[in-house]
Every structure is written in C-alpha cells, then in structure tokens.
C-alpha cells in the first residue's frame, strides 16, 4: 500500500467514525450542528471548549451526551459563588483506616477524561483559576506533589452571558486556554418542535459509546499529521497579527476598538482546527478556507476591547469578520 492509499484509508476511517459519533449525538441533541462540530474539533485537537448561551439551550446536555458516546470517564462541577479550589482539585486528608495516621490526597472531580465545568463564570476568579494548571499542562500540583491526569483530557465549560446576574468574568489567562469559544443560539421553530416532542414523550432516547479511548487518541494523533502548506500557515499568522492595533495589517476597527490582540495560542488554534476541519471534510491537507472557518471561535474570546469598544457595544465577531474579508490570502 502506497503512502497515498494509506492516507486515503485513514481519512475514510476518520470520517466514518465522526459520522457515527454525530449520528449518536443527534439522537439527543436537536440542531446546533456548528456547536456540535466545534466541540468535536476541540476534542480531536486535544483541547478545551467554552460554550456560552442563556440557560436552557442544552449546553450541559450536549456535554453529557458526548461523554456517554465516547466511553470516557466524566465528572460534572457545578460552579457556584461559594465553591472553593479544593472542591475542584481535591484535598489532603488524614487517613486512619490502617491503624496509623497518614496523609492521603483525595482527588477532586478535575481528575476525569471529560470535565464539565457547568456555569463556570458563577464562581469567583479564585476558584476559576484552580483549573489553569490542569487545562494547560494536564496535571495538578498540591503542596509538594504533582499528579498527572489521564489522557485524553478535555474541559468543556458552559457559561452564561456576562449580562446575567451573579456572573464573574473569566480571567484573561483562563479564557486564552480555551481552544474555541462557541456561541449557543436559540433554536429555530422547527427545532423547538423536535425538542418538545422528544422531551415530553413516553420514552427518551438512549445513546451508546461509539468511540473508545484508544480510538480518540489515535484520531488526535492523525489530526496533527495533516499537512498545512506554508501559505496556509502564513495566512493564520497574518490573521493573528491583524488583531493587534500596533502591527501592520490592522484594520481601522482594530486600531480604534481593540486594546490587546489575540495571543499566539490563537494562531495555534486556527491551524490545528484547520487540520481537523480538513479531515472532517474528507481531505488530508488544510486550506485557507479551513483557517477562515476556524477564525471566529478561535479568536473571539482572545480580543480585549478598548474602553471605546466596550462603550459602543462593539462585538469581537464583527471585528474578526472584517479582518477575514480584507486580509489577502497571499502576499504579492
């Protein structure tokens, strides 16, 4: 078998596995195709997703359904204002069961393959920051000891819009650790009918695991082998630079409304998401269109608006769309 035939076989198997996973999730989740695909891209990229939307749109149900479909360990943390870091990470206790006293670390809910951080912005910044090390390095340090977290590892967090009562903005350092920020919109009329019919019927849909831990790790490894030509990578770099008001390529909106542009993690997210997106479309090479498609969810939470931008209610999405439209695909 040639390298080309092997690549085609791998891509075909990848798309079949994703189709099965989408179909299984679709038994419970109605609509939200872009959000579902965004969560799957984050999972296959080995990173984390932040889902934002008003209560009742199925954000938590989507995460729970995904966990059931991939056969991984899952834990749920309900963030509240009185939640403490030890409630997430775990704590050291005195163990007297063996007849002697010894210190034992009891692991918290952060030690799972999929961690659902529900309404993450209802906890204080002190508690929110307890996830920082786990999200970036897949480990937790308590006292003098460091504890690894089993792979694969994803934090899928939901948050309510900041305009709602009882919310605390996530620290910029934590926002930057989320691969994508996905906006969960209100369902259409047809979707509402389907939701009501499913949730008020006598029987509820049941899902089954369609992917194993080993398959997910293999799919993650395959995604990183997808080639991206230099001009594709350069487009992602120039797109990122265009979000910085002091750099060349910045639009008038960026210069006026953006205080700090996206970090290098934004370019990493766009390029890696483009590789996964190519596989989802049955291709084994990332394109500029794949980068463009990843720009909004990868950058919208990484732009810090200026006072003028916040006062005028400017949306980061509009700024990013303008950059994508005006940025030339290749340099002359």
Which characteristics define this entry?
alpha/beta; Helicase, Ruva Protein, domain 3; two-stranded antiparallel ribbon; globular; 2 domains; 332 residues; five-stranded parallel β-sheet; Rossmann fold
What does this protein look like?
By secondary structure, the protein is an alpha/beta fold. The protein contains 15 helices and eleven strands. The strands form four sheets. It has a five-stranded parallel sheet with strand order 2-5-8-1-9. A two-stranded antiparallel sheet has the order 3-4. A hairpin with a 2-residue loop joins strand 6 (139-142) and strand 7. Helix 10 (230-241) crosses helix 12. It is globular, with a radius of gyration of 21 Å.
Topology:
Blueprint: H1 3-26, H2 33-44, E1 49-52, H3 59-70, E2 74-78, H4 85-89, E3 90-95, E4 102-107, E5 114-118, H5 125-128, H6 132-137, E6 139-142, E7 145-148, E8 154-159, H7 172-175, E9 180-183, H8 189-199, H9 213-225, H10 230-241, H11 252-257, E10 258-260, H12 264-280, H13 288-299, E11 304-305, H14 307-311, H15 316-326
Parallel strand pairs: 1-8, 1-9, 2-5, 5-8
Antiparallel strand pairs: 3-4, 6-7, 10-11
Helix pairs in contact: 10-12, 10-13, 12-13, 13-15
């Amino acid at each position: 078998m040639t390298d080309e035939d092997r690549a085609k076989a791998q891509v075909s198997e990848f798309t079949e596995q994703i189709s099965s996973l989408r179909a299984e999730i679709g038994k419970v989740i109605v609509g939200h195709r872009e959000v579902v695909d965004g969560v799957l891209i984050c999972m296959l990229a080995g990173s984390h997703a932040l889902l934002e939307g008003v209560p009742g749109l199925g954000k938590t149900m989507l995460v729970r359904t995904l966990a059931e479909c991939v056969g991984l360990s899952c834990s749920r943390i309900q963030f509240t204002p009185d939640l403490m870091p030890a409630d997430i990470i775990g704590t050291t206790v005195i163990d007297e069961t063996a007849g002697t006293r010894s210190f034992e670390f009891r692991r918290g809910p952060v030690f799972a393959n999929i961690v659902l951080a529900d309404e993450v912005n209802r906890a204080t910044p002190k508690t929110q920051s307890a996830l920082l090390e786990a999200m970036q390095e897949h480990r937790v340090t308590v006292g003098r000891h460091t504890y690894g977290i089993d792979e694969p590892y994803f934090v899928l967090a939901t948050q309510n819009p900041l305009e709602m009562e009882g919310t605390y903005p996530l620290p910029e350092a934590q926002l930057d650790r989320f691969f994508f920020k996905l906006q969960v919109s209100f369902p259409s009329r047809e979707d509402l009918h389907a939701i009501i019919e499913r949730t008020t019927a006598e029987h509820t849909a049941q899902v089954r695991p369609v992917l194993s831990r080993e398959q997910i790790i293999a799919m993650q490894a395959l995604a990183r082998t997808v080639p991206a030509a230099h001009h594709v990578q350069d487009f992602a770099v120039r797109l990122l630079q265009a979000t910085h008001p002091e750099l060349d390529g910045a639009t008038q909106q960026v210069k006026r409304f953006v205080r700090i542009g996206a970090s290098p993690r934004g370019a990493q997210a766009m390029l890696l998401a483009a590789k996964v997106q190519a596989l989802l479309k049955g291709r084994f090479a990332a394109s500029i269109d794949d980068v463009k498609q990843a720009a909004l969810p990868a950058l919208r939470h990484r732009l810090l608006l200026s006072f003028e931008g916040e006062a005028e209610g400017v949306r980061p999405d509009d700024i990013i769309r303008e950059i994508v439209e005006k940025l030339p695909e290749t340099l002359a």
